[in-house]
Amino acid sequence: xxxxxxxxxxxxxxxxxxxxxxxxxxxxxxxxxxxxxxxxxxxxxxxxxxxxxxxxxxxxxxxxxxxxxxxxxxxxxxxxxxxxxxxxxxxxxxxxxxxxxxxxxxxxxxxxxxxxxxxxxxxxxxxxxxxxxxxxxxxxxxxxxxxxxxxxxxxxxxxxxxxxxxxxxxxxxxxxxxxxxxxxxxxxxxxxxxxxxxxxxxxxxxxxxxxxxxxxxxxxxxxxxxxxxxxxxxxxxxxxxxxxxxxxxxxxxxxxxxxxxxxxxxxxxxxxxxxxxxxxxxxxxxxxxxxxxxxxxxxxxxxxxxxxxxxxxxxxxxxxxxxxxxxxxxxxxxxxxxxxxxxxxxxxxxxxxxxxxxxxxxxxxxxxxxxxxxxxxxxxxxxxxxxxxxxxxxxxxxxxxx
Amino acid sequence: xxxxxxxxxxxxxxxxxxxxxxxxxxxxxxxxxxxxxxxxxxxxxxxxxxxxxxxxxxxxxxxxxxxxxxxxxxxxxxxxxxxxxxxxxxxxxxxxxxxxxxxxxxxxxxxxxxxxxxxxxxxxxxxxxxxxxxxxxxxxxxxxxxxxxxxxxxxxxxxxxxxxxxxxxxxxxxxxxxxxxxxxxxxxxxxxxxxxxxxxxxxxxxxxxxxxxxxxxxxxxxxxxxxxx
Lengths: 402, 229
Fold this sequence. Notes:
The complex is a heterodimer of chains A (402) and B (229).
Chain A: H1 3-16, H2 18-55, E1 60-65, H3 87-93, E2 99-114, E3 119-127, H4 130-134, E4 139-142, E5 156-159, H5 161-168, E6 177-180, E7 183-191, E8 205-209, H6 210-217, E9 224-229, H7 235-249, E10 256-260, H8 261-304, H9 306-314, H10 319-355, H11 365-392, H12 395-399
Parallel strand pairs in A: 3-8, 5-7
Antiparallel strand pairs in A: 1-9, 1-10, 2-3, 2-6, 2-9, 4-7, 5-8, 6-7
Helix pairs in contact in A: 1-10, 2-8, 2-10, 2-11, 8-10, 8-11, 10-11
Chain B: E1 6-17, E2 20-32, E3 37-41, H1 48-55, E4 63-68, E5 71-72, H2 78-88, E6 89-92, H3 104-115, H4 119-132, H5 148-160, E7 166-170, H6 178-195, E8 198-202, H7 206-209, E9 214-219, E10 222-228
Parallel strand pairs in B: 3-8, 3-9, 6-7, 7-8
Antiparallel strand pairs in B: 1-2, 1-4, 4-5, 9-10
Helix pairs in contact in B: 3-4, 3-5, 5-6
């Protein structure tokens, strides 16, 4: 019996039990749709986060006090921080030709109040004029911190978009004064709404000159130094240079950790990719369940069609003919479900992608291929047992009178 | 004399039922020549159907030898037996055994499909056969839409479509009214005479059994009588 005839007979058998066939195909469809949609969402999340970081510029070097052998991870919470990272360390880095700008950073929390009596705890970021270009900060009102001697503790500040609204409502803030602890700062600018942000929320902070922050928090050591490398520059030599420069300034002790934006993006991408894979794996379990359902329905079909199988054998069907017929039926169930599930999954992913355009949801090709292969594979694997049972039926018994 | 179509020597078929062994066929010797019309009769449990299943190559004997058209078939494997059934033997059953979801034409076509005959030729041969069975207008009906007599004629058309040399009928009228039954018997006899095929009918209807030129009577798995003429 030819393949085409086998296929036609198998299709006819499935069509004869349309409701049952559709239900079983639905099980496979749900599995495939789940894999496709969940990986699409996972990839979307990864794309979104990685995109956010890349928007900050992948040419950033972040220098943190303390030695940490890992790449991309946060610095150790505990442990020794042998030497302060100073403002002068930061400016020494600018000597390396591939480093364009350096922004020293101090971070702390402090109560901020205004004349109207409003007061709240706010993140205070101490930095320099370079911060604006290094982190691509846009100004909505006024201007950013003025350039000049980083050691000068000027009493000026820049407000985040949200903080501005909380402190001053819709009134312009430039020229007004705020109080951080007992120090007064004149507002020189307000940041533009940065939208969704990764890491520091630039909407909800006060930026003051780094020397002012040192005084506010009574600390010498910087939280970190952000340096931007020349676009296109190799980051590895720049990282080396940073270590060398710091070591030469810290009595030969290389006691900083340098992470690059590249490695952060890579690490995050890897973490999110692993999560996607895990989620895909869990949803793939539903494909195995679908496979078991296929096996079950095919076993029922073998029992119900004993007489038909016996008849086919009596009129000359070989063992292989029968086995192939039932195997094709199982695979058709899986294939039909898989294609339907693929259509649903891709459609759902497209809807999500249209609804949230900033979220790049799309099922990766590997997930689609894997889902289809696994679905067809389960149909094949779980179809073998029923097909063999059908093929082994003894025609005399199968035809025996009812 | 020509080579017998069927040559059985000391054929037995034993079934194990729990602790006891039942001899359904108990040492039968039988030669059936080409073009013979044989009826097998006997009480229930006399081994009629067991013998027919053995002759039909659906079942294997427990012992004894079987030559089909001069060829020893006891050593053939399942697929070789299937091919022999497909090409040389037609079957008719009491319960018709039509595939319910297939039309009359598709049921008749099945043996040709299994044999790998090209679709165009299949359709042509099926149309001719259905016309010969007076079923041309029923070609696209499903079995459920046909009368018992029509169903059995579809089954006969299916049995004959591959042009077998041996036609086996197991209680072909057992599920039909007497009028349809008579029609079916006449049809079978016509095929036997016109096409020169060997016809074996298992029945416990004496009126039908008597019509055969050769009448075999089984009791307890043995041939009790073998009458001719």
